[in-house]
Amino acid sequence: MWDYSETVKDHFFNPRNAGEVASANATGDVGSISCGDALRLQLKVNPETEIIEDAGFQTFGCGSAIASSSALTEMIKGKTLDEALKVTNQDIADYLQGLPPEKMHCSVMGREALQAAIADYRGEVWKDDHEEGELICKCFAVDAVMIEDTIRANGLKTVEDVTNYTKAGGGCSSCHEGIEEILGKVLAERGETFDPEARAWPEPIASETIPAPTAGKLTNLQRIKKIEAVIEAVRPTLQADRGDIELIDVQGNQVMVHLVGACAGCQMAGLTLGGVQQQMMEALGEFIHVVPVAKKPAPVSISVRG
Q: Does 263 participate in catalysis according to the annotation?
């Protein structure tokens, strides 16, 4: 289980500024639900002073993503746009009294959403949307531009660092060679040499922050039972608000669920799914993406009389 600060826990369980902003005049969208994390940041900017008068967020992701989004909105309210642009992803992590290394990508996502929202307000094209770069990590749709920029901005040195800050390389690992090439290029610019021995990163991640199951790797049946147990644990809370959640399917690290009743279409659905996803990851000790899907209709049986 990851070691979260009390501030992270507070912003996860009591998120500030969650939901849409009335009269918002700037919106920044980053990430995607299919990749496991998505963030919409909305700002209400005073057109005369360019001061951010209000900020709100809608996040689909883990507890760190929700906490980072909550912290970001608190940090930028009252700042001018130029002052807000000086906020770095490390500032967000520091505000939360630290994030686990494996969760630093959540603060990077918040920083990008802020850049996108300010560009939207100013009628500019957000240049860091990563559409121009070569796609390096297909699992999480991370391209060379994002990896290179993040390495430079945060002084990263290993493949593990890149995975923690961007999620690139955290899936099938086939992109590790591409990440190493980018690391070699950026480190050479700094007069440093990339150490290829640093590519064997799974061991340190599993050793302390995500303890392996005591009986070894979970079987598919064991994984599904743990997933079902998490859903059953959260169901009473949702049902109390006239909502519910149903498990539809499990495919690898993707868990498909269907939101029912008041939960369907709720503005806080992203927070709900993020909380469920966080509990599943902690129960299984692995990355899990909870994806909302429409429930398939039951098959219709047709009998033909001869």
A: no
* Distance between CA atoms of residues 193 and 225, nearest Å: 46
**Token pair 């939360």 is at which residue?**
96
Residue 33: is its pLDDT beyond 90?
A: no
CB-neighbour burial class of residue 89 (10 A; exposed 0-12, middle 13-18, buried 19+): buried
Please state whether beta strands 26-32 and 254-261 pair in parallel, antiparallel, or not at all (unpaired).
unpaired
Report yes or no on whether pTM surpasses 0.70: no
> What are the E-state strand segments in the chain?
26-32, 37-45, 52-60, 135-137, 142-143, 243-251, 254-261, 289-292
Active-site option among 62, 106, 137, 175: 106
35 annotated active-site? yes
CA 117, distance to chain mean position in Å, is 18
Q: For the chain, which domains are there?
A: 6-121 (3.90.1010.10), 135-209 (1.10.10.1100), 220-292 (3.30.300.130)
The CA distance from 224 to 163, in Å, is 26
Q: What is the pLDDT of residues 218-261, one digit of tens each?
A: 788 888 999 999 899 888 877 877 888 999 988 888 888 988 88
Pairing state of beta strands 26-32 and 142-143?
A: unpaired
Q: Which 8-state DSSP code applies to residue 219?
A: P
pLDDT digits (tens, 9 = 90+) for 46-76: 999 999 999 999 987 778 888 999 999 999 9
- Distance (Å) of CA 115 to CA 38, 134, 171, 205, 263: 15, 21, 27, 30, 31
